[in-house]
Structures are given as structure tokens and as C-alpha cells.
Specification:
Elements lengths: L1 H41 L5 H33 L3 H29 L5 H9 L1 H4 L4 H29 L3 H25 L2 H4 L14 H6 L35 E6 L13 H9 L1 E3 L2 E2 L5 H10 L17 H8 L3 E7 L2 H6 L8 E5 L6 H15 L7 E7 L25 H26 L6 E6 L9 H6 L3 H4 L3 E4 L6 E3 L3 E2 L3 H8 L25 E4 L3 E5 L4 E5 L4 E4 L13 H10 L7
Parallel strand pairs: 1-6, 1-7, 2-9, 3-10, 4-5, 4-6
Antiparallel strand pairs: 2-8, 7-8, 11-12, 12-13, 13-14
Helix pairs in contact: 1-2, 1-3, 1-6, 2-3, 2-7, 3-6, 4-19, 14-15
Length: 596
């Protein structure tokens, strides 16, 4: 009798386990239906390869998530408490809560381009009224719990009949094949740079598709995607939002000089005497921020005038900046003078597409020697020009603390702020490097006629460290605050103290140089540099990590939604919480060009 009772108990548990598997599988289908909202946000595939991958990836991913939820929650309860009535109610509650979370995540993703995280949850809580509009947020939960209770009872009454059909193994095999195949296909797509597949990498929550990067790097192979930072490559970007209306009155030549790693706080009469004097005689923006802390994001913000969140936008892959497009249409010749910078070309392949390239590549890999060559290339190129021109001369020595062999620099000084011994060495070597750059600036600028528009700025700032990863993750003012000096023909000297950023240069040139009458919001995240900006924040960084500079604080956020808040001196504020309204504007700006 006791053995028979045990057998009945085992049969009951087995029946509950079978019921739980089917309940989880059907909820996986419900999750796929809700998950369709993610695809509506990022844009549907336009090739059969994209549709094929997306189909098997969706089936594999959401079925796997549903099974994991079952395994963690219902399966232990089935063993501990094998009572069908209780389990059906608990299962319906757990499934409903899981679908509520998924549904809420689709809303957050559609509004901010982020999945649920501490950052996005705090942000959404602040903006709850705008997100949960209408009555759908009341009706949907009631409908879901009703469906789940009905499903739980329906399956329990028919579980024996379903089991007799022997569908279970076939369903498991089918889902397993979809799950494994989606990862294998993604490995191939990652290696071959098939963007119709890889653009969906971050679309679904808790999705971590297998990549070829670690394998390829360990074997010394590098693909384009091995260097890319993934993002929500959403199609349907409207750039510009409205066609440009430009009526150019005059065609002034433009010389833009950008310097990698040029800190604003170290420009003084001892280190950069020429630039200090030149700034005093022209328009000097003393509170200027780059759009990034690296070359790629800094240059992107300077030429596109868009936040780094757009850097990997699928529709910008072959779309040059509107600034260069409009210059070419106006008859300008565009030229780029720099050393090899593969990073920005990989992340924004069209950024220099309309420029003629003059690349310096010193055999000794000396940035300073490359800068000398870039200056020489420009001086050879300029006299030959018969049409108006726009030249971008990029100098790179400060980024690697480099100077030419035999350079006679300036005396060392004590830093104004406390530095570690190794940092003190880098500090004074950096001063030598920017003193060398100062001499190149003098040579370039003094040769220009007074009617040339001259722009001098840093691509990004510079922190004193030899650790590349530390520099990439540092979004302090030292790494993003740069000088900006502009010489306008017949312009008066002025010192501008309100905060400006790289995003403002494109609107300034589009309106003042090219006569465009569109509002800057049609094509840029910035506003004209020539008047104070009403925005209380500046976005600095890319999709991997970025900072929001506000008046009294700096919020640094990584791609997983973890955030830290600092004061203006970049000291961590342990008791600070997110400042919602400005951050909501920031996240919506990162989606604005997709919503037209």
C-alpha cells in the first residue's frame, strides 16, 4: 500500500511537471507576441536573411526565457508543494508578472532605447505619466491574468490527452534547433559583418548572442565588427527631418584645426603662447565641451552635430554629415590632413567620405612627425586651390605625449592639482607636446589671409594615464573640456563664458557660412554657438558609456544602465539620485530622428 501511494505521488508530480513544461512553452509564445513591439521599434528586416535569423532567434530566445522562469520558480514548487490547484494559481500569477515586466520593458525600450535597468527604471518612474497614457495599462494586466488563469486550467484538464500525442520531444527539438542555430548564424554574421543580422543584437532583453570576436582575436584575425561597439541600429532615421533651405551669400575659405587630446585648462602663456594670444584677439569659448572623450565620438559630434548615441545608426553608414554635403553642393573643395585613424572610419564610415584624404604615415610611428607632415601637406595643397575650400587639419601628438626628436621645449613646472608620481611625468611631457602643437598652429594660422574662417579646437581632452581602458571610461571635465577659438573675417574679439559644445559648430556654420534657414533641430542636437543655449545638459560619449553634463552634476551611465553621479569636480556623490526631467530630454533626443 505504501509503495502504491509513493507511485501515485510520483505520477502526480510527473503530471504537474509535464503541465508546467507546456504552460511555459505557451507563455513563450505569448512573450513572442509581446516581443513584436521591439521589432516595430527597431524596424523590420528588409532581406530574407534578416527575416530568417529574426524568426529563429525570436523562437529560441523567448522560449528559453520562459523555460528559465519556469525552472527557477515553478519547478521547485512542483517538488515541494505538488498541489495542482495551488500551483495553477501561482503559475498564472508568476506568468502574468513576467509578461507585465516584458510589456513594460517594450514601453521603456520604445521611449528611451534602453531595456529595464536601475537607470531606465528610475528614469521611467519620473516620467510615468507620459509613458502610461490612456487606459491600456489598466486593461492589459487584467486581460493577461484572465488569460493565464484560463490557460492554466485548460492545460491541466487536457494534459493527459496532449501527452498521448507525443508532441513534447518534437517541440523541444524544434526550439533547441532554433536556439542553437540563431547563435551559430550570429557567429557567422559577426565575422562577416552582416549588419542585417547584427543590428538586432541588443533588441531583445537579456539577449547575449554568441560572437566570433574572441575566437578571431585569439587567432590574430580582425573583422570590422570586432572593432564596432554595438548599438540599437534602428532603421528609418530621418536626417535631416526637413529638406535644407540654404541661400549662401559669400564663400569664405574655412580652415578647421582639430587637436587630439587638447585640454582647455592647460592653455596658458607658458605652454601655448601663440594660441593664448590668438584666443584673446578672436572669439574664445571658455566653457566648451567635446561630444566625446575619444577621437571617434569627439569627431562625430563635431562634424555631424549629433549625439554619440547615433554613431552606429544603420542609416548613417553611408550618409556623410550634412555639413560636408552642403559644402560640396555650394562648390567647396574638402580636404582632410591627418594620420591614420581607423577607429572613426570604422564607427562612422561616411564621416570623411566627401573629403580628399592626405594621410601621413611615419615609418617610425611618430605622431609628432605625422603632424609635421600634415602641416606640410596642407601648405602644399592650399596654393593650388582655385575654388572655395574647407580644410580639416587634425594634429595628434598630444594624445600620445609625443614630440619630434630633438625638440627643444619648455621648462617643467609643478602641477596645480595633486598628481601621482607617474602622472607628474605625463603632465610635463604633455606640456612639451602641446607646446610643439602651439608652434604648428602658429605656422598654419599666420599663413592665412584675414578673410579665412579659422576654427581651432580639441577633439577631446586628456587624462594623465597610460591605461587605455581607464582613459576610455573617464568622462571627467579633464577628458572632455576643450578649447574653441574661432576667427571670423572682420569679427571682433570676444570672450564667451556660457557653456557651449561641439554640437553647436554645425548649426553655426550652416547658418552663418552657408545661409541655411532651417531650425537646427532639423539636423543637429546642438544650437548656434553665438547665443546661449537654453538646454541645461550636454551629452558626452557614445553607446558604450556616456555622461550627461548638467549645471551642478555629471551623471555617467554605461550600456547596462548602471549610473554614478558626480559633482562638477568629478567627485562621486554617494547620496545623489537621478535628476529626471533633463535626463528624459536626453534619452528622447537620442530617439528624435527616428520618430519622424
Amino acid at each position: 500500500m505504501g509503495e502504491k501511494k509513493k507511485q501515485l505521488g510520483r505520477d502526480k508530480v510527473s503530471r504537474l511537471v509535464n503541465w508546467g513544461h507546456w504552460f511555459a512553452f505557451i507563455n513563450g509564445i505569448f512573450a513572442m507576441i509581446i516581443g513584436n513591439r521591439y521589432i516595430e521599434t527597431v524596424g523590420y528586416p528588409d532581406t530574407w536573411i534578416g527575416w530568417g535569423y529574426l524568426s529563429i532567434s525570436t523562437i529560441g530566445h523567448f522560449s528559453f526565457l520562459a523555460f528559465i522562469v519556469y525552472l527557477i520558480t515553478l519547478f521547485p514548487l512542483t517538488i515541494i508543494m505538488p498541489y495542482s490547484r495551488i500551483l495553477r494559481g501561482v503559475a498564472a500569477t508568476i506568468a502574468s508578472l513576467s509578461l507585465y515586466v516584458l510589456l513594460y520593458d517594450t514601453i521603456i525600450y520604445d521611449d528611451y532605447g534602453l531595456h529595464l535597468s536601475p537607470f531606465s527604471f528610475d528614469l521611467a518612474w519620473t516620467d510615468l505619466n507620459a509613458i502610461l497614457h490612456g487606459t491600456s495599462y489598466i486593461i492589459a494586466p487584467l486581460a493577461i491574468i484572465a488569460i493565464e488563469l484560463t490557460l492554466a486550467n485548460f492545460l491541466w484538464k487536457r494534459i493527459d490527452k496532449i501527452q498521448r500525442k507525443n508532441w513534447g520531444n518534437k517541440v523541444v527539438a524544434f526550439v533547441g534547433i532554433c536556439f542553437v542555430s540563431s547563435h551559430l548564424i550570429h557567429i557567422w554574421a559577426d565575422a562577416a559583418d552582416v549588419t542585417q543580422i547584427t543590428r538586432f543584437d541588443d533588441t531583445y532583453p537579456l539577449s547575449y548572442p554568441a560572437t566570433a570576436r574572441s575566437f578571431m582575436e585569439s587567432h590574430g584575425i580582425e573583422s570590422n565588427t570586432a572593432r564596432h561597439a554595438r548599438s540599437n541600429n534602428i532603421e528609418g532615421l530621418t536626417y535631416p527631418i526637413e529638406p535644407l533651405q540654404c541661400h549662401q551669400q559669400q564663400q569664405s575659405n574655412v580652415l578647421m584645426i582639430t587637436v587630439d587630446g587638447l585640454r582647455a585648462d592647460l592653455i596658458n602663456a607658458k605652454t601655448m603662447p601663440f594660441l593664448t594670444q590668438y584666443a584673446a584677439k578672436n572669439q574664445d569659448f571658455t566653457n566648451h565641451l567635446s561630444g566625446g572623450n575619444e577621437y571617434a565620438s569627439g569627431m562625430f559630434s563635431l562634424l555631424y552635430g549629433l549625439q554619440g548615441s547615433y554613431m552606429d545608426a544603420y542609416d548613417l553608414t553611408n550618409t556623410p554629415p550634412l555639413l560636408s554635403q552642403t559644402l560640396v553642393k555650394s562648390g567647396y573643395k574638402l580636404a582632410l590632413f591627418t594620420d591614420k585613424h581607423t577607429e572613426v572610419i570604422d564607427k562612422s564610415p561616411a564621416i570623411f567620405k566627401q573629403f580628399k584624404h592626405y594621410i601621413s604615415d611615419d615609418a617610425q610611428q611618430s605622431s609628432a612627425n605625422n603632424d609635421l607632415a600634415s602641416v606640410a601637406h596642407f601648405e602644399q595643397w592650399q596654393p593650388k586651390q582655385t575654388a572655395p575650400w574647407f580644410a580639416l587639419v587634425n594634429l595628434t601628438a598630444p594624445e600620445s605625449y609625443d614630440t619630434p626628436a630633438g625638440f627643444w621645449g619648455i621648462e617643467t613646472v609643478k602641477p596645480n592639482t595633486p598628481l601621482k608620481p607617474a602622472q607628474k611625468v605625463l603632465f610635463n611631457q604633455y606640456r612639451q607636446s602641446i607646446n610643439f602643437i602651439d608652434q604648428q598652429l602658429a605656422q598654419l594660422v599666420k599663413a592665412q589671409p584675414a578673410d579665412t574662417i579659422i576654427i581651432i579646437t580639441g577633439v577631446s581632452g586628456k587624462v594623465f594615464t597610460s591605461n587605455a581602458n581607464e582613459a576610455k571610461n573617464n568622462l571627467s571635465p579633464a577628458n572632455v573640456k576643450v578649447p574653441l577659438i574661432i576667427h571670423w573675417p572682420d569679427g571682433a574679439a570676444s570672450r564667451i563664458n556660457y557653456r557651449t559644445s561641439h554640437y553647436g559648430l554645425v548649426p553655426t556654420l550652416m547658418t552663418k557660412l552657408l545661409g541655411c534657414t532651417n531650425p537646427s533641430t532639423d539636423y543637429s542636437a546642438g544650437r548656434s554657438l553665438l547665443q546661449p543655449n537654453s538646454q541645461n545638459w550636454v551629452y558626452v560619449g557614445d553607446n558604450r558609456i556616456f555622461a550627461i553634463y548638467q549645471k551642478q552634476e555629471i551623471t555617467v551611465i554605461d550600456r547596462h544602465g548602471k549610473y554614478r553621479i558626480y559633482d562638477n569636480h568629478y567627485l562621486h556623490q554617494l547620496d545623489k539620485r537621478l535628476s529626471g526631467p533633463d535626463l528624459i530630454q536626453v534619452m528622447r533626443e537620442s530617439r528624435r530622428l527616428y520618430q519622424h
